[in-house]
TrEMBL record:
Recorded coiled-coil stretches: none
InterPro entries hit by this protein: AhpC/TSA, Thioredoxin-like_sf
Name listed for the protein in its UniProt record: Alkyl hydroperoxide reductase subunit C/ Thiol specific antioxidant domain-containing protein
Pfam family, one: AhpC-TSA
Top-level division of the source organism's lineage: Bacteria
Domain Alkyl hydroperoxide reductase subunit C/ Thiol specific antioxidant: start-end pairs: 39-127
Record organism: Streptomyces thermoalcalitolerans
Length: 153
């Protein structure tokens, strides 16, 4: 699979042509836990990814957060949390569905469930990590899978 997604950093190729791995962190919606506590944890999960930026760089992995919202909706959130990586909007759920990411209902809306997809440089799905029950482990789960894929774990 090869595509271009609109993100808070502009158009971004998936997979990244400059990295061995592309790691997509799928979330429901930043701040949704205030309205729907059972879906809480997006902010925590995305911040764990930010906090592990050096580990992803060492693994030669491009990181991208993905939500079922337009990038403009995500820009203020990304800036206020100084994420340092792009958040992509997938309002029609096409990218997530192409990759097999599970979905959840939030009232009348369909959103992505919390998951991680690891793509190799050819665009092949090498890991689909779901469920991610502890948002505080979102980055750690991805890094564990990257270590195994790279033969280090």
């Amino acid at each position: 699979m090869h595509t271009i997604v609109e993100s808070t950093h502009g158009a971004v190729p998936v997979p990244s042509p400059d990295h061995e791995w592309t790691v997509l962190f799928f979330i429901t919606e930043p701040g949704i836990g205030e309205r729907l506590p059972h879906l809480a944890g997006c902010t925590t999960g995305l911040c764990t990814v930010r906090d592990e930026a050096a580990a992803f760089a060492r693994a030669n992995a491009r990181v991208l957060g993905v939500s079922a919202h337009p990038p403009g909706h995500l820009r203020a959130f990304a800036e206020s949390h100084d994420l340092g990586y792009p958040l992509a909007g997938d309002p029609d759920l096409a990218l997530g569905r192409a990759l097999g990411v599970p979905e959840v209902r939030a009232g009348e809306r369909t959103l992505f469930d919390r998951a991680v997809v690891v793509l190799d440089s050819s665009g092949r799905v090498r890991a689909l990590i779901h469920p991610v029950t502890d948002p505080g482990q979102h980055a750690a789960l991805a890094l564990e899978h990257l270590d195994r894929l790279r033969g280090h774990g």
